[in-house]
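SEQUENCE-TO-STRUCTURE ENTRY
===========================
What this section holds: a protein sequence and its matching fold, both as plain text.
Question of interest: how does this chain fold, as expressed in backbone structure tokens?
***
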Amino acid sequence: MVNLQEEEDLFKTVRVSARRFEESPFLKRQNTEKMIRGVYANRFFAVYNGEDPLEKYWTLRRKALLFDVPEKPIEISGSDAVPFLEKILTRRVKDMRIGRGYYAIACTPQGCIFMDGVVFRFDENHFWYVQADGALETWLVAHSENFDVNISDPHSRVLQIQGPASIEIMKAASHGQIDETIKYFQSGFFDIGGQSLYVSRTGFTGELGFEIYCDAAKTDHLSLWDHLINSGEIFGMEVSSTRAMTMRRIEAGILGNTTDMDIQMTPFEVGFSQFVDLDKEGFVGRDALVKKKKDIRLLGATCETRIPAAESKIIDRNKIVGQIRAGVPSPTLGLGIGYAHFYDSGEWCGKNLELRFQDGTRHRIEIVDLPFFDKTKKIVKGDNLEIPEINNSILRLIQ
């Protein structure tokens, strides 16, 4: 299943039985007749809820948004939790500190990307892997033979508060327990409105932000929602579907599993070499990865005249050399942007090429490195607290 969230996808809707998929415990606080939901990791989530995505985008960049997201934690515990994760993940985990999170990838035996997500260490032999879209739990069980591990679903629904005001909001929500001293990818348990919840300084937007992990039936979800809304109101926080998140995360070069990268692509070709430790023996896919090319074939494309659309073909001197994986408007840049996947290695960055849309029209694009801006991640790390001015020049492309 591919989770595209481009404009036209909002109108490709079908009625689906809800029995297979998990409903959000926060639905009562955000449901409207205009809500269009997607399915991700077997969970429903709001792709659109009648809002103006451009207005929400600027609230995200200038204040904060609250997102009910479908990412799914899986719990791995037991005496062999560490060696098991060393086998599953391409990144070394045995030296992780408790209360720390790592972005980590799981590969197929062929050296291609099966799953990505964030692994958190709760205790010496107790971890959560917060997965993206895909059947991770089944994959883990299939590889668990001869390991003393317990693999389970903690039934934790995740909320994200993202934007420059997020630290002040979380400070208010936690009565000062959470503040600027909590660094990027740090985590721990905190009292949020009288409930002990796991919180990490992470997110999916490229903005400064936090994720809050519920504790299954122990959590009073609606009380938590109301407490966060009350804590964020004074700082201008609003609730949003994921449309604004999608625009911002693509600007930030954050990839979506099964959408921007998939089981046919290696970590190297999407620019993830830093998350593959080839010095670590025995992990799934290592032998294949040793033999793979290290060239990056997933880059950015910018277009001044149209928003790149998924599956549009990239043309170089009348030859198809790649395609767009996902495209969105970039309000900050005032351009259409997208992920450009090239079929072969080459010196693509900096080139001006053509993009052929499915309606046959062609538009000029420029190939650029990712992310599209904030390349040193100063925003998400809190090193750049400048509030951007609103720029609605992108309206010329989306109206």
User: Anything to note?
Assistant: Residues 94 and 332 are 40 Å apart (CA to CA). The mean pLDDT is 95.
